[in-house]
């Protein structure tokens, strides 16, 4: 197959491209330039879009002996990821920009260009396992497609990939899905002579260079004075914008006095319409059900009682590195909605988060994804 390998400049994508070459594919490397700040360097960038990253990607491609290109996807990234991030916070939701980036740039935009140029599939350094589709040498074939957790659960990225959908995933290759650990991947890069073997991982939100998300939101959305209130509406303090708070947050609330019982308060809810942030005791954070829309099905629902469809005794994960919670899940494919009845309480669930359903014989297969309402 003709394979377009996304080279971020890190060790994972370099080894993934190398493995794609080993598999006999005709591989071309491409680095996606996502930042509009061409002066961004690693000393001022905690993400994956620095000038050094592009140079490291080119160096890796030279060692692998594959053609290499840099594609400017900064406009797509700004429109599909950064603008969405700000819009979601403005609406009082808590988005995951990595989920959006995987869906709208690293797959949609990259695959769109790749297919137009005659490529059969894209290969990335994500940690997840795929069967069927391009992974079985049948790009575009949906019949046996399945996305599952990576062999290394600590690095598993199936959560952020679920939103990509069956069509996109059928054209994807994840050569690191069976890697036993990140240490093993680094050792393989060292053995291959790749210069990025010891390069540190990127972290935090790549377009928030200093890691100060609240500051980024205030600079982008402006300061908006509002009130911190109790669940019954009592004014407890003030803030500079509801979008700077996340459900479950305890620190940095700026409260003027403690709770009567002396217990800490947490953010329970944000109210964009009134610019209020509701704070209260920890027990108000626990939810026993998850409602979500924008349903993405990666497996066929099973018949349940009362003519409903979904899955019994599966699990739901709402954070990239969070614990999956046992649940029964009902889906409405026509309405594009999902409801998970949790077998145990889930803490600090926020609108805008991605809910991913896992099941199958081993509990590792991704069944569906939707966005929490």
Q: Going by CATH, what is the homologous superfamily of the largest domain?
A: HUPs
Number of strands: 18
List the secondary-structure elements in sequence, H or E: EHEHEHHEEEHHEHHEEEEEEEEEEE
The helix content, as a percent range, equals 10-25%
> Roughly what fraction of the amino acids lie in strands?
25-35%
Radius of gyration: 22 Å
**So what's the overall shape?**
globular
Please describe the biggest sheet, giving its number of strands, its sense, and whether it closes into a barrel.
Answer: 6 strands, antiparallel, barrel
The total domain count is: 3
Strand order of the largest sheet: 12-16-15-14-17-18
Helix count, per DSSP? 8
EC number: 2.8.1.13
Catalytic activity: S-sulfanyl-L-cysteinyl-[protein] + uridine(34) in tRNA + AH2 + ATP = 2-thiouridine(34) in tRNA + L-cysteinyl-[protein] + A + AMP + diphosphate + H(+)
Subcellular location: Cytoplasm
Domain tRNA-specific 2-thiouridylase MnmA-like central: 215-280
């Amino acid at each position: 197959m003709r394979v377009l390998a996304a080279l971020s400049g890190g060790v994972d994508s370099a080894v993934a491209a190398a493995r794609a070459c080993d598999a006999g594919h005709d591989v071309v490397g491409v680095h996606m330039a996502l930042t509009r700040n061409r002066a961004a360097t690693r000393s001022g960038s905690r993400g994956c879009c620095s000038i050094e990253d592009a140079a490291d990607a080119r160096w890796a491609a030279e060692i692998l002996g594959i053609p290499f290109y840099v594609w400017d996807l900064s406009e797509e990234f700004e429109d599909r990821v950064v603008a969405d991030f700000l819009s979601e916070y403005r609406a009082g939701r808590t988005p995951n920009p990595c989920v959006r980036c995987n869906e709208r740039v690293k797959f949609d935009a990259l695959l769109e260009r790749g297919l137009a140029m005659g490529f059969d599939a894209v290969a990335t350094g994500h940690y997840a396992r795929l069967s069927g589709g391009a992974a079985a040498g049948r790009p575009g074939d949906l019949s046996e497609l399945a996305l599952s957790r990576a062999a290394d659960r600590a690095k598993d990225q199936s959560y952020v990939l679920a939103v990509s959908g069956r069509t996109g995933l059928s054209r994807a290759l994840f050569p690191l899905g069976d890697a036993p650990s990140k240490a093993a991947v680094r050792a393989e890069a060292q053995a291959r002579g790749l210069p990025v073997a010891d390069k540190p991982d990127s972290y935090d939100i790549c377009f928030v260079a200093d890691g100060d998300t609240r500051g980024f939101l205030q600079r982008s959305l402006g300061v908006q004075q509002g009130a911190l209130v109790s669940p019954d509406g009592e004014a407890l303090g003030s803030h500079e914008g509801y979008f700077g708070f996340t459900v479950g947050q305890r620190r940095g609330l700026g409260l003027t006095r403690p709770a009567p019982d002396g217990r800490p308060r947490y953010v329970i809810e944000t109210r964009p319409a009134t610019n209020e942030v509701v704070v209260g005791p920890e027990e108000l954070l626990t939810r026993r059900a998850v409602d979500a829309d924008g349903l993405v099905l990666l497996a066929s629902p099973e018949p349940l009682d009362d003519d409903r469809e979904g899955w019994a005794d599966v699990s739901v994960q709402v954070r990239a590195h969070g614990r999956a919670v046992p649940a029964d899940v009902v889906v409405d494919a026509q309405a594009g909605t999902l409801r998970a009845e949790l077998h145990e309480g889930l803490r600090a669930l926020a609108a805008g988060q991605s809910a991913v359903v896992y099941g199958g014989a081993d509990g590792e297969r991704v069944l569906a994804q939707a966005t929490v309402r």
